[in-house]
Structures are given as structure tokens and as C-alpha cells.
Amino acid sequence: MNNPSANHINKNLDEVRAMIHRHKLNDYIFSIIGLLCLMVGLVTLLTLFIDLIIQGYPKLLSLSFYTDFPSRRAASAGLLSALVGSSLVMLVTFISAVPVGVMAAIYLEEYAPKNWFSDLIEINVSNLAAVPSIIYGLLALGLFVYILDLGQSIVTAGLTLGLLILPVVIVATRESIRSIPIAIREAAYAVGATKWQVVYDHVIKYSFGGILTGVIIGMARAIGETAPIITIGALTFIAFLPPSPVTTSAPFLNFEWLSSGFTVLPIQMFSWLSRPSEAFHVNAAAAGVIIILVTLIMNGFAIRMRYKMRKNIKW
């Protein structure tokens, strides 16, 4: 005689097995679709990158391309002023954005009271991270160029890009701090540590890899930005270098370079692309390869540092 309860249990088990099989199939299909989408993006990027290398390799192998100034003749045109300009602009960007962004994130995550005002700040920071870069260029044009009268200079460009990556640094730092288990904080408090000791000796230490990753990714974004730099009036042709930041006489520092005219790698590439001559397009391709390589190196360095720091941390 059949047992109705056993039959009911077997029927439920069959339904559970079918549901599990269906969900596994859906997961498998989704993973295949995701992999195909990833491969399309990677293959497209790799194809474009290889095309740039093929087009610009004659210049990439030329030392004079890195040591000569731009010229109206494509054969003798170089990237020296753009390389130096990008380096100095990134220096100002780092100094203006990273300390402020990291400290703001630490305050919001560890010290700020949880109320409507801190929620409002968090929402606005997240929204600012998605604002188009041209908006920051227009803001900088009105604030730094016209109101503060900083002119179309390196300090203006650095502060503009600093504003651009500031929300990115804040968001990345907060996410890194949130990933630290609450048990670490509780253990530190249990042995008598103060709030600052917990934050400095434990939270920042364990989240430093993620913070560094966010900073480098933000800098990698800034180095390839063109729209805000064009908006504030970066030069498209510059055949001189800014004054050196370091001097041989006391106090060994020179700040005249902050108010100097400048150009950067994306602007120089844009200038060469606007020329009708095919020889200038070869220069532009070589400049594009350099920009992509710098970005990939910075992102690779961030991934490597994060992996190394997480591996060395003893929880």
C-alpha cells in the first residue's frame, strides 16, 4: 500500500531538484553571456590597441620622440613638453585631492554622526563621482580662472582634475574602510585603545591596500582626461618647459612652475589628430599607446599592491 506522506515528500524532493537544476542552468547561461560580453570588450580594446601600436611603432622606438618639443614638422615633433606637463599636473592633482579625499572619507565613515546631514553628504559625494568631466571644467573656468585669477596654468589644471577625482577617492576609501570587520575595532576597544588609535593603527592599516587602489585608479582616470583641460585653456602647441620645481640654491624649491602655461598628453594627441597630414597621425597613435600603457601600468600597480598588502596582513 502506497504511503501518501512518502509520495508527497518524494514529489517535493523532485520539485526541489528540478528547481535547483533550473537555477544552475540559469547561472550557467548567465555566466556564458557575461563571459561573451567581457570577451567582446577585451577583443575590441586589444584590436584598437594593436592597431595603434602598428601605426605608431616607428615613433615609439625613436628616442627623439620623447626628448624633442612639438614641431610644425611631423618628423621632428616630440612629446617632451606634454610629458613634463602631465607629470606636473598629476603632482598638483595628487597633492590637492588625495589627502583631502582620504581624510574626508575617514571622517564620514568613522567620526561623522549618522543622521540626515551625513546621509545627504554621502548621496552628493556618490552623485559627484558620476558627473561628466566637462562640468568640472566649466566650474574650474569660472572659479579658478576668473574668480581666483589663477589663470590658465598648471595649478588650475591640477586643482580641476583634483576636484574630478576627489569623489572617486572618497568613495573608494569609504568602501575600503567598510570592508574591515567590526571585530577588529571591538578587539582594539576591549584592550583600551582610543578612537584615534583604533582608526590609525587598525582601520587605516588594514584598509590601506584598498585606499591605495582607489587613489591610483583616480589618478589613472585623471591622466587621460581632455575635456576639463581644454575648457580651462590648455595650450595645444608649447615649445618650452615650465621652470624647474627644484633649484640648486636655498630653499631649493621653486613655485613659479605652478603659474606656467602647459600642455598634457591627451591635448597633444588631439592636436596631432586635427592635422591633415598622415605623418602627424602616426605621432598621435604613438601618443595614444603611451597614454594607454601608463593607464594600464597604474591599474596593474594598484592591483599588485592591493594583493601584496592583503597577503601580508595577519587578521
TrEMBL record:
It comes from Methylotenera oryzisoli. GO terms for molecular function: phosphate transmembrane transporter activity. The lineage of its organism: Bacteria, Pseudomonadati, Pseudomonadota, Betaproteobacteria, Nitrosomonadales. One of its GO terms (cellular component) is plasma membrane. CDD domains: TM_PBP2. Its main location: membrane. It is a multi-pass membrane protein. Belongs to the binding-protein-dependent transport system permease family. CysTW subfamily. SUPFAM superfamilies: MetI-like. The chain crosses the membrane at residues 28-54, 74-107, 128-148, 154-172, 226-243, 280-303. This is Phosphate transport system permease protein PstA. Keywords: Cell membrane, Membrane, Transmembrane, Transmembrane helix, Transport. It is found in: Cell inner membrane; Cell membrane. GO terms for biological process: phosphate ion transmembrane transport. It comes from the Bacteria. Residues 83-302 form the ABC transmembrane type-1 domain.
